[in-house]
Write a structure and sequence with these properties.
By secondary structure, the protein is of the alpha+beta class. It has one domain (4-115): VSR Endonuclease (Endonuclease, Chain A, 3-Layer(aba) Sandwich). The chain is built from 5 helices and 4 strands.
Length: 131
């Protein structure tokens, strides 16, 4: 297990070196109506660092580039996702190409994950800390 201080330093370094697709989604996420909560980027969860995380809904968003097609990376992604889901997180994944091609569809999917339907009214999300 990696120490918390090392994991936080790694997350900080990742935040400083975001990919263009992460920057695009990060800007767009800040415009989503998530009163009372927010998204974090490059957030440590257990032994992993996730791309984006909404604590109030325990929602993890991962962006995947072409290297995620490689067997070793795909296997690691599956194991990581299984661990996160076992811990009670919901994980949704998007290919980088979809971020570029259809950002509105990505945001719509995220909104549905947060509120249940496209038509649902945005309501304050409460972050309940787990102890």
């Amino acid at each position: 297990m990696v120490s918390t201080s090392i994991q936080r330093a790694t997350a900080k370094k990742l935040r400083a070196n975001t990919t263009p697709h992460e920057r695009i989604l990060w800007r767009a996420l800040r415009d989503l109506p998530t009163d009372g909560s927010h998204f974090r980027r490059q957030a440590p969860i257990g032994p992993y660092i996730v791309d984006f995380f909404c604590p109030a809904k325990r929602l993890v968003i991962e962006l995947d580039g072409g290297h995620h097609n490689e067997d070793k990376t795909a296997t690691h992604d599956r194991e990581r996702q299984q661990w996160l889901e076992k811990e009670g997180y919901r994980v949704i994944r998007f290919w980088n190409s979809v971020i570029t091609a259809d950002l509105s569809a990505v945001l719509e999917r995220i909104y549905v994950e947060l509120y249940g339907t496209r038509e649902a009214e945005a309501r304050p999300l409460k972050h309940l800390r787990r102890r």
